[in-house]
Amino acid sequence: MPRRPVAVFALASWAHRDIFPADLVTRLRQLVDIDPMTTFTSFQGAGAAAALAEADILLTGWGAPRIDADVLAAAPRLRALIHAAGTVKARVDPVVFERGLVVSSAAEVNAVPVADYTMAMLVLGAKRVFDRAKRYATAVDGAPPDWLSGDGTGLHGCTVGVVGASRIGRLVLDRLRSFDVQVLLYDPYVSPVEAVRLGAERVDMDDLCRRSDLVTVHAPALPETHHLLDARRLDLLPDGAVVVNTARGSLVDTEALTRLCLTGAISAVLDVTDPEPLPPGHPLFTLPNVLITPHLAGAQGRELRRLGEFAVAEVGRFVKGAPLLGRVEPEQLPYIA
């Protein structure tokens, strides 16, 4: 009888519990042998060594240790790494690909709630909901009812600048088709023809900043994207523009953004910051025209199960020798988020 594939969980306990509930573990155990109660956040120790020695598949997620040459040396049978979360950039050493392992990520699944969050924030940001709500909450008798003013607000008729036609960027572009907006796209790897197919006009970054009422950032953190929205480009934004960042904090110059938000020239919705988190008492936390959320745009709560469903399905495809839907190629590693 041929040996059944052996899988090992390597992710934080909370992620293990929420991403792989009991029914998904039952489905997984129909495909592979796996200890449903054990997950590793470190590969140090005898227990981890014994598990790695038998593992054909690693099921990783948030809290997983980095998979490098030492891990591979302890896992001679390992053939696949299936990541039940977003990016694998911090988890996978390039040696994994050199060894010939198959790598899969649930990034496509995790992109969906980020795109949904982005659209919600574009709608709310265009209505100036955050500062108007705070003014409403602090209004006193006899004060001018400026919280009622809706002049120049609303997403209808706006120009939205999308920075990066990444997985999430493309989902946002697709969702924007449902709104009566003009869409601009900055992505040096997208041709003008493809941009039109995506429902946007391809422009350079300066032009995007000059023309956009709202800018939403979906590019990876690379040396060439550091402070892509720097002081000069932020100054190009029209008065009242809104910046939404769900990508990486380093893409936006925090000091320059703070200066403009302090004057009220622009507003911001930040699910990521630089540094992350911002230090206590940072001015951005207290400004009425800024909303900062704790890196929660990706899968949360009930959404986490979808990552587990995808990962279990990928295991099934791998065991059957079918192509993996979330396969990560080695040349993609430097450019993913």
TrEMBL record:
Q: Show where the D-isomer specific 2-hydroxyacid dehydrogenase NAD-binding domain sits.
A: 123-297
Give UniProt keywords alphabetically. NAD, Oxidoreductase
Instruction: Name the InterPro entries on file.
Output: D-2-hydroxyacid_DH, D-isomer_2_OHA_DH_cat_dom, D-isomer_DH_CS, D-isomer_DH_NAD-bd, NAD(P)-bd_dom_sf
Quote the CDD domains the UniProt record gives. Answer: 2-Hacid_dh_8 (cd12167)
- Matching Gene3D superfamilies, A to Z? NAD(P)-binding Rossmann-like Domain (3.40.50.720)
Identify the residues that the record assigns to the D-isomer specific 2-hydroxyacid dehydrogenase catalytic domain, covering every copy.
Answer: 49-328
Q: Which PANTHER family match?
A: D-ISOMER SPECIFIC 2-HYDROXYACID DEHYDROGENASE FAMILY PROTEIN (AFU_ORTHOLOGUE AFUA_6G10090)
The similarity annotation says:
Belongs to the D-isomer specific 2-hydroxyacid dehydrogenase family.
What this protein is called in its record is: Hydroxyacid dehydrogenase
Q: Which organism is it from?
A: Saccharothrix yanglingensis
